[in-house]
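Teaching note: in complex prediction, the entire set of molecules is handled at once rather than each chain in isolation. The prompt given to students was simply: 'Predict the structure of this complex.' The entities are:
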Amino acid sequence: MIIEQIDAPLAGSLLPTLTGNYYTSHDIFVQEQELIFEQMWFCVLRASDIPGSGDYQTVQVGRESLIVSRNRRKEIRAFYNVCRHRGMKICAEPSGTGKRSFQCGYHAWTYDLDGKLIAAPNLTKMPDIDRDDFGLRTVHVREWLGYVWISLADEPPSFDDTVLAEVTTRLGVVENLDHYEVDTLAVGKRVTYEVNANWKLIIENFMECYHCATIHPELTEVQPEFADGLAAQVFVNHGAEFGSDIKGFTIDGSPGVALLPGIDPDQNRKYYAITVKPQVFINMVPDHVIFHRMFPVSADKTIVVCDWLYLPSVVESGVDLTKSVELFNRVNLQDFEACELTQPNMSSKVYEKGGVLVPAEHHITLFHEWVLGMLGHDGASVGE
Amino acid sequence: MIIEQIDAPLAGSLLPTLTGNYYTSHDIFVQEQELIFEQMWFCVLRASDIPGSGDYQTVQVGRESLIVSRNRRKEIRAFYNVCRHRGMKICAEPSGTGKRSFQCGYHAWTYDLDGKLIAAPNLTKMPDIDRDDFGLRTVHVREWLGYVWISLADEPPSFDDTVLAEVTTRLGVVENLDHYEVDTLAVGKRVTYEVNANWKLIIENFMECYHCATIHPELTEVQPEFADGLAAQVFVNHGAEFGSDIKGFTIDGSPGVALLPGIDPDQNRKYYAITVKPQVFINMVPDHVIFHRMFPVSADKTIVVCDWLYLPSVVESGVDLTKSVELFNRVNLQDFEACELTQPNMSSKVYEKGGVLVPAEHHITLFHEWVLGMLGHDGASVGE
Amino acid sequence: MIIEQIDAPLAGSLLPTLTGNYYTSHDIFVQEQELIFEQMWFCVLRASDIPGSGDYQTVQVGRESLIVSRNRRKEIRAFYNVCRHRGMKICAEPSGTGKRSFQCGYHAWTYDLDGKLIAAPNLTKMPDIDRDDFGLRTVHVREWLGYVWISLADEPPSFDDTVLAEVTTRLGVVENLDHYEVDTLAVGKRVTYEVNANWKLIIENFMECYHCATIHPELTEVQPEFADGLAAQVFVNHGAEFGSDIKGFTIDGSPGVALLPGIDPDQNRKYYAITVKPQVFINMVPDHVIFHRMFPVSADKTIVVCDWLYLPSVVESGVDLTKSVELFNRVNLQDFEACELTQPNMSSKVYEKGGVLVPAEHHITLFHEWVLGMLGHDGASVGE
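The expected output is the structure of the full assembly:
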């Protein structure tokens, strides 16, 4: 899976991008909802957001509103937020705590925390209602890295062959991520961004560092090799090293907080990044992990939720995380502005056949081919 | 027209609803505009809203803006609000009083109160302008219950076979409504609601009372039988009786105002409801009538105007109507919130084949079959 | 090109207009963007808006964002505002001054003021990038009357046969416009209007004066012949004469400012108007020129930018231009309100086959035929 020889990525020829319509067409976005977001494993929330039995959040995946909650045994369950009777939203609020059951506010059909229909007015007089058949429709759930991943597919893809394979591709082995013990960390900060750009522009931006010297002065100060334009993601298990005078992954290079105890000595003073298609970015530095979830809303709008994860003891101590958070918050704002200034031109005649990828961006071609494959557009080659 | 035996409606099997797309599709909404709202008798305003000659209101029916006014003989007339010359809106304001004629603000083409073209610059030099042919295009008008009903159809449907038949179906004979002398009443209160839901959800909600126990605590307090889930509309000429300790149809069961003198003794202490498809609800209680007009705006938006009608002497007396109005105002708000929480799920995969109607809702099937028939979708059976 | 005999225009028969869908259809608007606005000479800005080398403005023509600027030799150049690499907007701001080059804010691809690619990270290592081929895509530019006109066509239409021919049609010879020396004038006032109407309604409105008596009391006071309903545009080189008690083209007929020195004695005390399809109006009076540029945004929205141009000495003197500007500002507001009250009815059933043109408006038929011809809708005759 190494795209280029290590001495090659800065030189050579150009490759085409996707054509402009892939970033603007409502029809293609609907295909992406149906064939990508409503099929693949999709990361919806942090498990600690719903700590207790009957705690819930509602989330939007593709075109669907879902309830993610925990049953009496505190196991995570996810349901379509749709009453099986007349279709009203079971949960109208974005979150809630400690429910004993889910009751529809319209006709009081009531479901237990595993989704089974347990009560409804006159239910006993309606013999042909099977309480399981008329339960809330469930979706597949996985917990990994302390996050809840769901799949709306009847038969979800293999978690190993999709999510975990992304980690292997980047880090060689999943163990290199395990060292960060991401599931044990606490959320020190969460920022939600509304980005007026197609989700694929955000992924492409995240995958390459050819733009780093131009728009990320603070980041390239911390990681000088980024000024050369090569993303850490170009090479297997490559981490971008901190500059010699840099004390921590902070906005001004000042010291960070307590190191994550499990990381390998080789992982200290380095930044790693993983793109988990279709909507997660994982960024690892020695003292924290920055975790992005994207929620594509339309062809030209994407919500991005970004968590900064630290050791629980760090978060509990109340130590000032401002400088730590601000580095990647600024990177996010810089990246999203670039995406927003790119989005409107996707409909230009000049971009009708797409743009070009320079050698340092060639690995984005793999993403484009993946998109076309998922949409069954294999006949259409990139750039045509 | 009795859908169920009186002992049956609470028990039995399930029926399907319309499929979700009927509540979300713009194309189907356009068909409804063309084949339902722009064809049937459509109730636009209360005749007393335009008391005098040349008083007018503009109203929106389907895709058309209309002027409803009175001519010199105070007869009601309705016109398309479109100048026959270059198409400008004749009346730009929502209402006005005492006009002698309608003059277009663009080129001064002028029409009399019957719509005839009576003046225009250079008109006498243009011999091929027939002043009737180039008059404002008129629409059919009926006055009934003190309301103005119009039809945009070239040949309107029979008023008897449509509007009045709805009354007969519910009350057995139209005389049972005549007793309320609705045309003689005065508007004590008018409230306009903007509801983010398809008009059919609002009708379905109005037709059934399976939801009453859940969302209408004040209403079921006044009419205890509603707590059982059976709408008054299920049985011919059935009125829902007030609870024994209830003194009037008010938010707290306190006494109402002066009884309507014409009602039958059997109609005292009872609530009756009629759905007049496609957009009117009539609610009768002993001391007032509550009259809803719906103006569907789009597949997911409907304006509802609700009048509370009392004896003119009651309105003139200035007696406090707050408690009287507040009962159904609260019912409206409760119902419309339920519709608004149902609307977004109409596009869910879970509702692709629709939901289910319990026995107490089975009469809604007749409404669904009517919709499909009006749209010429008879091939498509409900629930498929 | 005289449409009617001079004694005819107030009498006679009616002609049809375009059908309503030409003013509401998104599809037809897209055709207009492709075949009219993105093909013809389109007036974008006043040359004095970008006086110096490297000064620029961004403008929207059809579906495209463009940069209009001056190179080192102060020659005007225009480019698509699209980086040739990944498509970001080169200029994110609406205007700027004194740039030495255009650098994309995303990956620092840099173009000189003639659009040539002159720098990019690692550019020297990418031998297959031809710096001309990967330059900013240029568009054709003309300067005339002190305005910049551009064409996005690969082969623009003849300026003589389109823009100048409009002047000849109206004034007989271009020299009759040359006398005003429009290119030497200074902008005394600029007003931008957002009009919720189709661009063709605005043109039709400008072409006829049958509405003048109704909506332009101030204008008909200054030019009494307009009260008869005949636009100056109906006759070749006809100027509408000021009323005998009128001292200048001002809101109250009070004296204007210094006369334009080059005008013909015959042009004094007269108003002339030219429609330069598809988006410019030129109005000439003895002491100033009023110049409209339209930027169609959608089928029902148009931005209009109006300049009031005076002798530079007048503008520099700081003399109060309020009364001078207010006359046509008021005319604009009156016209645009009429267009906005016409637009909604273009979708009415009553306007399905269009409206009618009275004799004084018959010359608008030429505009309608031109539109149909440009769109290749010749089969569809006006009014069907």
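Point out the following to students. Residues 280 and 293 of chain A are 5 Å apart (CA to CA). The domain at 42-151 of chain A is CATH 2.102.10.10 (Rieske Iron-sulfur Protein).
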